[in-house]
Design brief:
The protein is of the alpha+beta class and about 190 residues long. The chain has 3 helices and 10 strands, in the order βαβββαβαβββββ. It has a single domain, classed as Gcn5-related N-acetyltransferase (GNAT) (Aminopeptidase), CATH 3.40.630.30. Strands 1, 2, 3, 4, 5, 6, 7, 8, 9 and 10 form a 10-stranded mixed sheet that branches. Keywords: Cytoplasm, Transferase.
């Protein structure tokens, strides 16, 4: 896939047409091949439905995407408002062109407009440094818990890196605790 100058977009979930979901699902299937079963039949989400989508198109194809969902998570004894960021992807054929960094900058700008204190996301160890270069901080020794989308009657506990982006509050205001409980699904 040749990468022309992308057209950037942000849309509320209710503004997406069926074709938008299909194009996003195609990207997510390509980017997350091991979990592509979540994106069958133009389903453009894996667990919880996001409220906001950001991304880039080249022609008809979506080549970069991130989803945002404002929610409260439980950290220790504190209910903390966050903007959960997930389904962050750049099409494998378009990687290495700076689209990921541009996408994260646009996500941060949008989180600032939403006025949330923190962004929150899970990733794997191979991509944690990519997010750190964009201002996200790894919560060392902190796990996350949520309802497993494949088996919603049980919880999934994840020890992969959990990252926080200070948006309208400094990182020092993040509550202490060794588990972030989403009390529901993840993006």
């Amino acid at each position: 896939m040749s990468v022309e100058e992308p057209h950037w977009f942000h849309r509320w979930e209710g503004e997406l047409a069926p074709l938008d979901h299909l194009r996003i699902a195609e990207l997510l299937s390509a980017a997350f091949a091991s979990t592509s079963h979540h994106f069958r039949d133009a389903r453009s989400w894996a667990g919880a439905r996001p409220e906001l989508r950001l991304g880039a198109r080249v022609g008809e194809a979506v080549v970069a995407h991130a989803a945002v969902l404002r929610r409260f998570v439980r950290v220790g004894e504190t209910d903390q408002l966050v903007a959960e960021v997930g389904l962050v992807a750049v099409h494998p054929d378009a990687q290495g062109n700076g689209l990921g960094a541009q996408l994260l900058a646009r996500v941060e700008d949008r989180l600032r407009l939403l006025g949330v204190p923190f962004g929150l996301l899970n990733t794997d160890r191979t991509t944690a440094t990519f997010y750190a270069r964009s201002g996200w901080s790894v919560l060392t020794g902190v796990a996350s818990r949520w309802a497993d989308p494949d088996y919603p009657w049980r919880h999934a506990d994840l020890r992969d890196p959990l990252l926080v982006l200070p948006v309208a509050a400094p990182l020092t205001r993040w509550p202490g605790g060794d588990v972030v409980d989403r009390n529901g699904g993840v993006l």
